[in-house]
Amino acid sequence: MITVGIDVGSITTKAVLLNGTTWQSLLLPTGCSPRDAGKSVFEQILDRASLSPADVDCVVGTGYGRISLPFIDKAITEITCHARGALHLVNGTDMVIDIGGQDSKVIMIDEQGRVINFAMNDKCAAGTGRFLQVMAAVLGADVSDLADLARGAEPVQISSMCTVFAESEVVSLLAQGVSKERIISGIHRSVAGRVASMAGRLGRGRRITFTGGVARNGGVREFLARELGQEVTVAPEPQMAGAIGAALLARDRCKH
Amino acid sequence: MITVGIDVGSITTKAVLLNGTTWQSLLLPTGCSPRDAGKSVFEQILDRASLSPADVDCVVGTGYGRISLPFIDKAITEITCHARGALHLVNGTDMVIDIGGQDSKVIMIDEQGRVINFAMNDKCAAGTGRFLQVMAAVLGADVSDLADLARGAEPVQISSMCTVFAESEVVSLLAQGVSKERIISGIHRSVAGRVASMAGRLGRGRRITFTGGVARNGGVREFLARELGQEVTVAPEPQMAGAIGAALLARDRCKH
Ligand code: SF4
């Protein structure tokens, strides 16, 4: 059986092709048209596998752009898809922490990957990848280099949670001569702190899996673990959790 | 009797000298030292009135920088000072809406200008002067020109409340060719909407007085009135409400 999951996020669009037990993945920037991005990843992933749409048994779409995909069989919410994907990626997961480019979510799941409870922030840039991007711009750094730049530094206290006010704080910390390493470490702690308090309100996980683009940042992971007082496992291919979950749910759907 | 009120805000520092029933005012940028700014406005306002510190019966400090003023007789919270100042500026005021450079507050007061209830936002840049500043920068405009630039235009919908996400929305509205007038009008409505909802949670005023630096923006005032379905009166010298209240409270204090 061949299924495809497509996750159209605000910044990147992901596709996963599931063929029996093997899977392939593809990631493209969403750009300004979620519909075109969704179409592109679908075509390209089929192309790479030398398949045509007719070979695919079921396509599930997820992510904020899922409603603009005319070719999918079903649209399923990100929460449901992420939960399923994270459990597949890390056995035994009961709490998923996902930090994406513009949102963050915490999901408690049962042994089947079903959602028990969740919390989500997509209203405020603090505690999302966007916070890191704004800060990287102020520091003249690339967001993907932040973790390396900070490595090992004692975090400086950034007292404003708000991205805009924190940006001014960072400017004045730089002017005061505080090292970039310590500032970046403080930035990582800020993101982790915001998301950890959202997680804390939901409860306590025994096995916490970290997904989303920000999960590639080891600094944020470390502070999440410190704040929660627990181990936090980064999912392999953390950005793919939603698309993998979508592909798995597509497979379940076809079986019935 | 001569009293002085000093309001050290995040962006500007204000002094009011009250001599019997006449008053003089002065406003300076706070810069990076609230302490120096407070000292400067105090010295300069005395200088202009040809007075020395010994001529002053009582000095009250307010605003976020009030604690760093060694020469004051008493520090009183912004909420208390604003309430008193607004009632003095506009007779009959029972609700004060203050929008400053980095915060916003709504205060319900009784006939003596005493605080019955209040709400404040100093955590989130949305619904404060900072939101307007960020947007003015994106539009390449001066924040003091926004109201003139928007005049009469139908507001475009800005769906994100968050300053950071709204900034991206404005960039893409500009790219779509939406007029600056409509965008600025939408920005004014966003600020007003955020503060109006804070006011709505407190109750309903019969006489609403608008103070703070943002009260000079007629566009925000208009949308506040629309959102609240009531008249909103801009206080004369709206930025001085806190310092005037401080000077009046200093007078009360000396009487006892
Ligand atoms: S706190 Fe800052 S980042 Fe969060 S919604 Fe408000 S403006 Fe946006």
UniProtKB/TrEMBL annotation, chains A, B:
Superkingdom as given in the UniProt entry: Bacteria
GO molecular function term, any single one: hydrolase activity
Q: Which UniProt keywords apply?
A: Hydrolase, Iron, Iron-sulfur, Metal-binding
Q: What InterPro entries does the record tag this protein with?
A: ATPase_BadF, ATPase_NBD, CoA_E_activase_dom, Dehydratase_Activator_Redct
Q: Does the keyword Iron apply?
A: yes
Q: What is this protein called?
A: R-phenyllactate dehydratase activator
Quaternary structure (record): Homodimer.
The record's EC number reads 3.-.-.-
The cofactor named in the record is: [4Fe-4S] cluster
| Domain ATPase BadF/BadG/BcrA/BcrD type residue range list | 4-250
